[in-house]
Protein: Hydroxyacylglutathione hydrolase
Organism: Terasakiispira papahanaumokuakeensis
Amino acid sequence: MLKVTPLPAFNDNYIWLLQQPGSSRCWVVDPGQAEPVQRYLAQHELQLEGILLTHHHPDHIGGVKALASEGVTLVGCVHDVYRLPPLSQQVAEGSRFQVLGETVQVLEVPGHTLGHIAYLFADHQPPLLFCGDTLFSAGCGRLFEGTAEQMHTSLQRLCQLPGETQIYPAHEYTQANLRFAAQVEPDNDAMTARITQTEAQRNAQTPTLPVRLSEELTYNPFLRVSNPLIRQRLEQRAEMTLPEDSRAFAVLRAWKDEA
């Protein structure tokens, strides 16, 4: 069983730190800043063994240079080697490797960026997914490089994971995402409950993450564009029939961008 600790960075990033209880070895995911990691390592007498990168944006890789000393394994997408720090392990769709005794599977999930990947600890109980900026609680990433169809396809892949999968996005965007989601589907009881929960968590200055995939499927509009009520709202907004889910997703993503 892995222990996963959120290390806040910048205004709303999370660097996820993974360790085996009783061991001094650890890995981190998307260290946009080095200082939060260095501070935690020193306080808890831990040794950084490796770094997982989901994509190339500076708020995800900015701390790598200061952290990636000799002996630290740096993992990232083979398609993005030209804009990532020098990798010691290049991975792609279907790649498998070991982290702290657990098998990690790589999923290519383009949309936010073309070379975006996610890391799935499928055999862990419960499964763990480190998805960077692809899937957020009640939201998804902006389309900086990919298309709406690519992002929709990526998210639908993630929807097929076991419902108990714990989702670890890289940002604390939950409250803002829920405000928008409530505009899309105002009568969703599951969303109302999540809003109440999230307000309590943030008032207590605790993270709203991770979140179970099964919960996201009940209120995240970006995972629910085939829902008849959501589809009706999107068609009203677009003033046209939207026969394909990917077209409905594009309308929803554009609406969020304008919100």
In short: The chain has nine helices and 14 strands.
